[in-house]
Amino acid sequence: MRIASVEFLGVNVTPKTNWCFLLVRTEDGRTGLGECTLMNQEALLAAEAARLAATLAGEDALARNRIARLIPHAPGGLVAHAATSALEQALWDLAGQASGQPIHALLGGALRPAVPLYANINRGAEPRTPEGFAAAARRAVAAGFRAVKLAPFEPLVWEDAADPTMRAPYEQGLARIAAVRGAVGAAVDVMVDAHWRFSPGGAARLLRDVDEFGPFWLECPVAEANHEAIRRVRGMANERGMRLAGAETLAGLAAYRSVIEAGCYDVLMPDIKYAGGYEEIRRIAALAQTAGMEIAPHNPTGPVCHAHSVQLCATLPNLLPLEVQFGETERFFALATGHDLRFTDGAATLPGVPGLGIVLDEAAARAAPWLPMPRPWLDPRLG
């Protein structure tokens, strides 16, 4: 089963969102799908896909070990890692199609009949008032979710903490968390994503201020370069009965190894779009398990990433609920055919058909090509 082409396909789905896919076609007419969504990097992803196409033409799509030698996860930034992660996803899709089995079966079989999900309500919250977030949370609970996540603190950046105008976004963020907790009650878990907006001292205050709302976890409160500071914040969170979660944009086992050995987090969030694909995340999860750490993959983007993440998560023993973008756009369900991606009682069902189980509606995707975004969704000083 020889590779005939590798193609980048970027799709605009909302005024703030593009999704990016990698299509690997074989000479016998199959197409494997991967996702490499990375906001504001679409042109570079297209160039990286072209490089992959030139390297891989004529290679055996089932020879993943050989292909890994041709395109190692070498330094190249997150763009290169996103492209190669999408390639790995697509190759697993093709392997499943060729063998007549779903990907989770090729990985040794599912450990659970369905994958539990939590609803990321951040992009579906309109207006972005406490009441808007509360309404989005109520919709998620009505849809069967037992856990929701919000990112309430934009446009706060820790470097600007001395600016008196930053007090209002902080207070607004706390009000949003309070409104969501009030809307969902005590039986639903609430996760708070801080998007690296705080200094270690600011994170200590944040933990004190959110304690009354009982978050299940606090996510990415501080920059991830300072492992000692993260470990201190984790200790403060644990004293309050909270988990600390993070590491969503790291790539490769080596990057996660240092985080695991430093004891930074209770919950690691590798993203199948960036971390290296199935095999690398399974290695990361196994190493995390030896340290008593749980895995909750980062998954706030398109349907191809979601479908791959579900197949992966079905096989992970140390799994917490998988993230899913809730309420952003109905195109999440309309852009792919095959296995039904709609959520049932806050969970994702597993496909029993070969490969990934979905097919991209290429005509619909090409009818809405990706668009340049006027500004990044996250302040470039964060991360």
Features:
TIM Barrel; three-stranded antiparallel β-sheet; nine-stranded mixed β-sheet; 17% strand
Could you explain the architecture of this structure?
By secondary structure, the chain is of the alpha/beta class. It folds into two domains: 3-100, Enolase-like, N-terminal domain (Enolase-like, domain 1), CATH 3.30.390; 105-356, TIM Barrel, CATH 3.20.20. It is 38% helix and 17% strand. The protein is built from 13 helices and 14 strands. Strands 4, 5, 6, 7, 8, 9, 10, 11 and 13 form a nine-stranded mixed β-sheet that branches. A three-stranded antiparallel β-sheet has the order 1-2-3. Helix 5 (130-142) packs parallel to helix 6 (167-184) and helix 7 packs parallel to helix 8 (227-239). The radius of gyration is 20 Å and the shape is globular.
Please outline what is shown here.
By secondary structure, this protein is α/β, with parallel strands linked by helices. It has helices at residues 42-56, 64-70, 77-99, 103-106, 130-142, 167-184, 200-210, 227-239, 253-261, 278-290, 303-313, 331-334, 362-366, and strands at 3-14, 17-26, 31-35, 114-120, 147-150, 189-193, 217-219, 243-246, 267-268, 294-295, 322-325, 336-338, 347-349, 358-360. The chain has 2 domains: 3-100, Enolase-like, N-terminal domain (Enolase-like, domain 1, 2-Layer Sandwich); 105-356, Enolase-like C-terminal domain (TIM Barrel, Alpha-Beta Barrel), CATH 3.20.20.
